[in-house]
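Anyone up for a design puzzle?
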């Protein structure tokens, strides 16, 4: 029987190996850890876990496994003494809304007098929404050691497919919605959904915890498919009615949302500072998950009333002008449509939209987003997002291919100049939406990350004052 040598540390990066370490060679999206086994051994690894036969020096144990990512996840959970057994762990998945829902739940838990940890787009040092399994288990161990009782975690489709959450013991899971995204990785919507569904159909199945629950959006066709035959107590939420958590009425204003929501505990009135009707689903999901965890209704209503939102999600940029400037992370067709419809409901004079699409990602959504933006906006400024290794102008041209004829549109590849153009065009009562990057503080161009924060750029431009007409870069079509 093959056994690991006794080891004191676990690593999946060769440079992190120390004397006596166990190195797990995983095949990454860009590099293959098997190429770095020699370096891992030089740095002190005494055991290597691999997916294929490799030569190792005498005295180094070699374990060949079918899936080294799966092995890393299970070894990591064991190495940190399975910290998720000590936490109430909630996973939130879906295309849009994960960050808001997890942040809402953490805030409500605080109102209930509980200590919680938060993992996701805004709360991981690695930059990944869901960290690699070793890093994830280490974070959970630190949470538990710090006294946290609950952990709320964004779970991406990449993380599910790449086994990052294997070894986690979930108490519950939330499905927000599913729309086009990441098809450069998953190829089609069926594959994308099947990975999202693994959180419910596989990870809840293997969880050894009691009273498992799932919160699912009943208005989403993928959600309705998912709700059938789950090994958990299913809580459905809906804006259309007929679910345990159902919207009875809603009013939207620049100041926030007012909702009437039917729950098993009766109809409750909720007041939220969140802007935009698309946030209703996020609020309903948070109510359902909170009730599934038996949080007091007083904590739920107080938490919703005092939660002002997360950075870069319908974030208003204060200014001395008589118009609205909003920064939002919307970078998918559905998210962009939701934000624009929400802004239209707030009755601005005009909506001027600045957005682009990321390079080295799903090209199919570019004309779709161009079409949506042109249909839902009065003026469109198409620009760069994170072009990465692609030619920015090529991306702009593909977006413009979907823009509807007759749209007042500008193509300005430089994002700073594009934002300046939109602000110059804005008149009293208009709303300028700057979409796609939200909370991000960088722009990735030609493989280089450069400091860039839409909110800071807006402030700098406003402080500088309006440009003269002959300064404006870009082309008018």
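Challenge accepted. My sequence:
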């Amino acid at each position: 029987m093959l056994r690991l040598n006794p080891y004191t540390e676990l690593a999946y990066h060769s440079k992190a190996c120390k004397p006596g370490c166990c190195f797990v060679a995983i095949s990454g999206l860009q590099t293959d850890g098997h190429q770095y086994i020699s370096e891992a051994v030089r740095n002190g690894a005494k055991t290597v876990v691999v997916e294929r036969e490799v030569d190792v020096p005498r005295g180094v144990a070699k374990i060949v496994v079918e899936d080294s990512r799966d092995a890393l996840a299970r070894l990591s959970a064991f190495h940190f003494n399975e910290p998720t057994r000590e936490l109430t762990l909630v996973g939130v998945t879906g295309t849009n809304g994960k960050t808001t829902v997890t942040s809402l739940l953490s805030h409500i838990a605080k109102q209930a007098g509980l200590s919680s940890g938060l993992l996701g787009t805004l709360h991981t040092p690695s930059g990944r929404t869901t960290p690699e399994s070793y890093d994830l288990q280490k974070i959970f161990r630190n949470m538990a050691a710090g006294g946290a009782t609950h952990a709320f975690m964004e779970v991406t489709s990449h993380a599910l497919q790449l086994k990052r959450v294997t070894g986690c013991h979930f108490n519950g899971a939330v499905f927000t919605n599913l729309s086009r995204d990441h098809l450069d990785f998953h190829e089609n919507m069926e594959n994308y959904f099947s990975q999202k569904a693994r959180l419910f159909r596989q990870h809840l199945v293997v969880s050894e915890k009691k009273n498992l629950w799932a919160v699912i959006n009943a208005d989403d066709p993928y959600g309705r498919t998912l709700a059938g035959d789950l090994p958990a107590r299913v809580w459905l939420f809906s804006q259309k009615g007929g679910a345990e958590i159902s919207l009875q009425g809603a009013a939207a204003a620049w100041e926030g949302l007012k909702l009437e929501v039917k729950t098993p505990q009766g109809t409750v009135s909720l007041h939220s500072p969140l802007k935009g009707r698309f946030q209703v689903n996020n609020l309903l999901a948070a109510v359902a998950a909170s009730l599934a965890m038996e949080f007091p209704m007083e904590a739920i209503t107080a938490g919703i009333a005092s939660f002002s939102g997360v950075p870069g999600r319908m974030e208003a940029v204060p200014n001395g002008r008589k118009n609205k400037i909003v920064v939002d992370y919307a970078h998918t067709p559905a998210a962009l449509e939701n934000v624009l419809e929400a802004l239209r409901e707030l009755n601005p004079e005009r909506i001027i939209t600045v957005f682009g699409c990321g390079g080295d990602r799903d090209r199919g959504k570019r004309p779709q987003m161009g079409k949506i933006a042109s249909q839902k906006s009065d003026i469109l400024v198409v620009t760069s997002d994170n072009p990465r290794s692609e030619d920015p102008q090529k991306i702009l041209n593909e977006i413009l291919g979907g823009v509807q004829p007759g749209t007042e549109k500008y193509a300005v590849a430089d994002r700073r100049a594009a934002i300046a153009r939109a602000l110059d065009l804005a008149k009293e009562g208009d709303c300028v939406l700057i979409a796609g990057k939200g909370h991000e503080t960088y722009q990735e161009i030609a493989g280089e990350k450069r400091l860039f924060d839409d909110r800071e750029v807006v402030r700098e431009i406003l402080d500088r004052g309006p440009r003269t007409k002959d300064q404006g870069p870009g082309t008018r079509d």
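A detail worth pointing out: The radius of gyration is 24 Å.
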